[in-house]
Design goal:
3-stranded antiparallel sheet, YjdM_C, Phosphonoacetate hydrolase, hydrolase, elongated, 2 domains, alpha+beta, hydrolase activity, SH3 type barrels
């Protein structure tokens, strides 16, 4: 039986976290646990984007964890535990974490991504207006920029297509202007619709 068919049957064709029925896809729960062959869950687009830190967390959406944390499938329990830890500073999540039980092996798997450390906030690349930027977006410069080490002067209103996000710095993106690859501060760009 194919993985998607198995997950669809297991979940009743709904997200195993929030029970949504639209835009479902397979999420392979990282990292690979050596003794588990079944580590996938069926999740909706909203859950996936927030799990993978591509979107800001929405506490109202994750109230569903009060149900999914009791799921009999270990990958669902692991993701539920990780997401509860991202919200652990909120009383509802702290209460659920105190009730939740994972055996030692499953808890070790859940801790491997580090979601139980830190304050649970995520940093996203955002333009001058606070819009979230993703790789491949087109942005417009909101200020004339002198490019260091070059005679290039990028003018206000210049469109930069197919941007790339700088992985380790959410205040920077990369893009080409006049055929030259440059690093641009996100506070000087506006996302095009």
């Amino acid at each position: 039986m194919k993985t998607l068919d198995k997950l669809t049957t297991r979940s009743g064709n709904q997200c195993e976290l929030c029970a949504a029925t639209e835009n479902l896809s397979i999420y392979d729960v990282p990292p690979t646990a050596s003794n588990l062959s079944d580590r996938e869950i069926l999740a909706c687009e909203t859950c996936l984007n927030q799990i993978e830190k591509k979107e800001e967390l929405n506490a109202n959406h994750w109230q569903c964890l009060s149900t999914s944390m009791w799921n009999e499938n270990l990958p669902v329990q692991v993701v539920s535990w990780r997401m509860l830890n991202r919200f652990r500073n909120e009383s509802w999540a702290a209460d659920l974490l105190h009730m939740m039980y994972l055996d030692d092996e499953t808890l070790d798997w859940a801790k491997q991504t580090g979601d139980h450390e830190g304050d649970g906030s995520i940093d996203l690349h955002k333009d001058c207006n606070g819009n979230i930027l993703i790789g491949g977006d087109t942005v417009t410069l909101i200020k004339d920029l002198d490019v260091k080490g070059s005679t290039l002067n990028a003018k206000i209103g210049t469109a930069v297509r197919n941007i790339r996000l700088v992985h380790d710095n959410t205040e920077q993106i990369e893009g080409k202007i006049d055929g030259q690859q440059i690093v641009i501060l996100t506070k000087y760009v506006k996302k095009q619709s």
